[in-house]
Amino acid sequence: MKKIILFLILLFFSFSNYSQAEIKEPGKINSLKCTIGALEAYFELQENLKKKPKHKGVVYLACDTSTGEYSWTWQSSKTIEKAHTKAFKNCSKNSKKKGNGECYLFSLNEKIVWELSEDKMENLFKIHSKKKRLLPNTDAKPIFSDEKMSDFEKNIIKKKDPSSFLNLEFVGSKNLKMEESDPDNFNLYENVYIYKALYKNNHQITLRLHPKFNKKKVEDIAYNLSYAIGQLPYFLTKSYNRANIFKNKIYSKNDKGKKISAAAMAAPNGTLIIDITSEASNLKKPYFQETLLHEAGHFVFRAISYSDDFKFTRNQDSKFISKYATTNIDEDLAESVVAWVGLRCKPERIKKSDFKKVSEGIKNRLKFIDNYANKKLVNTYPMECNF
Fold first, then answer.
1. Which residues lie closer than 8 Å to 123 by C-beta, 6 or more apart?
2. Pairing of strands 141-144, 319-322
3. What is the rounded distance in angstroms from the CA atom of residue 387 to the CA atom of residue 376?
4. Where are the beta strands (DSSP E) in the chain?
5. Pick among 1.10.287, 3.40.91, 3.90.550, 3.40.390: CATH of 147-376
6. Which of 32, 236, 258 is nearest to 125 (CA)?
7. What's the pLDDT tens digit per position in 202-219?
8. Which helix (H) or strand (E) holds 66?
């Protein structure tokens, strides 16, 4: 009986000494990992407050030091009390599901109020500063609409410009699996026309044309596309290894996984997937070579488009080159490559007013590509480019 009473007394004191986190209570858990994780919420909140200047906002963070797991919630509202109430409630609900512990106040408006040891706080602010530099510049607007971009780029390469293309060889027709709309999935086609395009410096590209093409026109299509690829600066030309050529709609997926119609796609291993009936990649249109420039931009720069170096670079510019460039960072760099070729290789074909707009609006992106070209000692034949 005495043991039971003693147990109940100890249990009572353990509960009476237990203090649950209270709303507005700043966190004091000395964990750099958890607080670094909360910076994501902090920056999301700052973007929200920028769009809604009359709002106030808070971030609440739950941190389990034993596992390093954390969860956070941010909330903005016209009244700070309402923001506190909603954020604390939602944070507590989420942390309970995940078992991350109690929720404490991480930041109030722009101020981080979480308490860390001096050395960890110093490290947090260094990381905060670096992450802030890499955030997208939400004030940047496109220089050109997509329609105006087509006008800007349509004369960068002209039909009679020289090419590094040498000749075309017909390999034959055979049943073949090749990528179409989804670069990860292959469809089997019967009697695919196969050509080999040869270029200077021993580069070659395999062209595979859909069997639906008129047999009499197949060679002309293969020749025209091969010649056009050779009109690009050579370091872009040699990024092409294969071309899957269709006369039907092809589709890519946006960042949300939604299917969208595409004129062309840069698939893995230097494979171009192209619908030549599309407006942007129609071989008879004056700007289809610029579509090839864009896709080559993906091939050459995809590995570094998401680098911290390029993220920081683009955030220093006041503009995007086009509306399409705002889609994501990968498209941004590919579109910037088109502009770079225009300004550095064919400046006489760019309107003076457009030249000025682009030179000023995306000057850091252009310098980024300049630096790449100089570092790699790129070959720009058959163009003469100054960078």
1. 32
2. parallel
3. 12
4. 56-64, 69-77, 103-108, 111-112, 141-144, 165-179, 186-199, 204-209, 242-246, 250-253, 259-262, 264-267, 271-275, 319-322
5. 3.40.390
6. 32
7. 999 999 999 989 888 999
8. none
Strands 103-108 and 111-112: antiparallel
CB 135 within 8 A of CB 315: yes
Closest CA to 163 of 220, 238, 103, 228: 228
| Rounded-to-integer distance, Cα 325 and Cα 376, Å | 25
Domain with CATH 3.40.390 in the chain: 147-376
Residue keyed to tokens 């203090």? 19
Identify which of 306, 233, 248, 239 has the alpha carbon closest to the alpha carbon of residue 267.
239
How far apart (Å, rounded) are the C-alpha atoms in residues 130 and 295? 31
Tokens of 268: 């893995």
Q: What pLDDT does 16 receive?
A: 35
Token reading at 135: 């955030």
Cβ atoms of 155 and 345 within 8 Å: the answer is: no
In angstroms, the first-to-last Cα distance of the chain is: 90
∠ Cα 15 20 26 (to 5°):
150
Share of the chain above pLDDT 90, in %: 64
Distances (CA, A) of 33 to 68, 169, 220: 7, 59, 60
Strands 186-199 and 103-108, how do they pair? unpaired
Q: What are the CA-CA distances from residue 111 to residues 55, 106, 117 (Å)?
A: 15, 9, 17
Pairing of strands 111-112, 271-275: unpaired
CA distances from 333 to 199, 281, 340 (A): 26, 19, 10
pLDDT per residue over 161-206, tens digit each?
999 999 999 999 999 988 887 666 788 889 999 999 999 999 999 9
Query: For 21-58, what is each residue's pLDDT tens digit?
Result: 789 999 999 988 889 989 989 989 998 998 899 999 99
- Contact 265/295 with Cβ under 8 angstroms? yes
State the pTM of this model. Answer: 0.72
